[in-house]
Amino acid sequence: MFRQKTGSVVCASCGSLVGVNDERCYNCGRRNPGLWGFGPVLRRFGNDLGFLTLVVYGCSTLYAATLLVSLWRGESLMSGSIFSILGPGTGTLFLFGASGAVPVFVYDRWWTVLSAGWLHGGALHILFNMMFVRQLGPAVADMYGAARMIIIYTIAGAAGFLLSSFAGMFLPALPFLNGAQFTIGASAPIFGLLGALVYYGRRGGSTLVRSEALGYAMTMFVFGLFVPGVDNYAHGGGFIGGYLAGMWLDPLKRERMDHFVGAAICLGLTALSILWSILSVYV
User: Fold this and answer.
1) Which tens digits make up the pLDDT trace of 57-86?
2) pLDDT band per the 50, 70, 90 thresholds, residue 216
3) Which residues form the domain of 155?
4) Beta partners for residue 183, in sequence order
5) Using an 8 Å Cβ cutoff, are 234 and 182 in contact?
6) Do 75 and 246 touch, CB atoms closer than 8 A?
7) Which end of the chain is less congested by CB atoms within 10 angstroms, N or C?
8) What is the 3-state secondary structure (H, E, C) of 144-197?
9) DSSP state at residue 252
10) Which of 93, 112, 91, 92 is nearest to 101 (CA)?
11) One domain for residues 16 and 88
12) pTM for this structure?
């Protein structure tokens, strides 16, 4: 059954039993607590509503597509960095929506701050990023809710790539810290998940969550300082974006319907950014 029309369901916010057609939850006051009868179907995807699976399969599909297009274009799949081994060519990544100073400020492809987080430059690059998505995503979904996690992930990615693009265009290069001419990868939104967890630890008084998330972030940031090709501006921007998004969304308040609408808008805009990146080359 795709949609439940009668009977009782669990409120999407507080877990109380409500009627599937109730306009408001008697316990937490949430409007349409049964999600118009689609709640049971959505819960089958887990507490993240299937978003983390979408990220893993979406990134993997795009990675495979960029490799095939690179081969068709005659581009080399090998590069100097260990994270760029079996990586698509720069031209192909530009076509699919890579961000950075060149796409954003030279070619005015500003929407790529949304698409770049779904692209990857090598086998190890996508492998490690998807491992971190699987590790950190469920924790953020538990603490913020699935819809707010999607919003945080999107905002953090956009903030990270915007900062990196700006730094690559306008800021001088510093030791271990350079803006990117071209930049991709899920690490910017991953740092956003860490930023959101740090804020949750501060807001909720959980020193364990805060220290664990800060430890992850510091370790990954220091690692990036010594590995060639790592976009530390995107990491820093993603962390700040995730922290501020977590503050704005307030994890101690219940998830609302407008959060689900916002999450749907984030997913829609991201999908459109990838599609438009490809189409705009030929328009």
Assistant:
1) 999 999 999 999 999 998 877 666 677 788
2) confident
3) 51-280
4) 99
5) no
6) no
7) C
8) HCHHHHHHHHHHHHHHHHHHHHHHHHHCCCECCECCCCCECCCHHHHHHHHHHH
9) T
10) 112
11) no
12) 0.88
